[in-house]
Amino acid sequence: MARILGIDYGLKRTGIAVTDPLQIIASSLDTVTTNELMDFLKKYIEEEEVEAIIFGEPLHKDGNPTHVAKAIYKFIKKVNKAFPNLRVELQDERYSSRDAKNIIFNSGAKQKKRRDKALVDKVSAALILQEWMQANKW
């Protein structure tokens, strides 16, 4: 089987998560600056077999897209063009950053580590991917 990538897209930084080849576990992978994201994806997909990319869709409590959503939709068009055989889907990411911060806090991480926004982005990406897997795989 191929891996599935999870993306917590941000205007500055993007968190990336990935499944194992059997698509059982979602794990944090990396955080990259958003302007380097396409290069990262090209390199990763060249090295690993990837079946799909799941983007977190930032929505307000009422379900309407946030201001970041427009940038995500634009980037997804680029991904679809660059990787036409790859499935691209959206997963509601409401509260993923808050939940990631809680996970990091409850892990016993020191305050400096809890303030690491790159870590929060990676954990958020894993949560987005895990929620998608729960809804679509398990």
Search tags:
single chain, 138 residues, alpha/beta, 5-stranded mixed sheet, 5 helices, 25% strand
Give your account of this protein's structure.
With 138 residues, the protein is α/β, with parallel strands linked by helices. The protein has a single domain, classed as Nucleotidyltransferase, domain 5. 43% of the residues lie in helices and 25% in strands. It is built from 5 helices and 5 strands, in the order βββαβαβααα. The protein has a 5-stranded mixed β-sheet with strand order 3-2-1-4-5, with helices on both faces. Helix 3 crosses helix 5 (117-136). The protein starts with a strand and ends with a helix. The mean pLDDT is 89.
Structural class: alpha/beta
Gyration radius, in Å: 14 Å
Unreliable residue stretches: none
CATH class: Alpha Beta
- The rough form would be described as globular
Number of helices: 5
Please, what is the CATH homologous superfamily?
YqgF/RNase H-like domain
Give the overall pLDDT as a whole number: 89
How many beta strands in the DSSP annotation?
5
Helicity, as a percent range = 40-55%
From the 3D structure, determine the CATH topology. Answer: Nucleotidyltransferase, domain 5
Distance between the first and last residues' Cα:
15 Å
How much strand?
25-35%
Number of domains: 1
Question: What spatial order of strands do you see in the largest sheet?
Answer: 3-2-1-4-5
How are helices and strands ordered from N to C?
Answer: EEEHEHEHHH
Largest sheet: 5 strands, mixed
**What CATH architecture do you see?**
2-Layer Sandwich
Question: In terms of topology, how is this protein built?
Answer:
Blueprint: E1 3-8, E2 13-19, E3 26-33, H1 37-47, E4 50-57, H2 69-82, E5 87-92, H3 96-106, H4 111-114, H5 117-136
Parallel strand pairs: 1-4, 4-5
Antiparallel strand pairs: 1-2, 2-3
Helix pairs in contact: 3-5
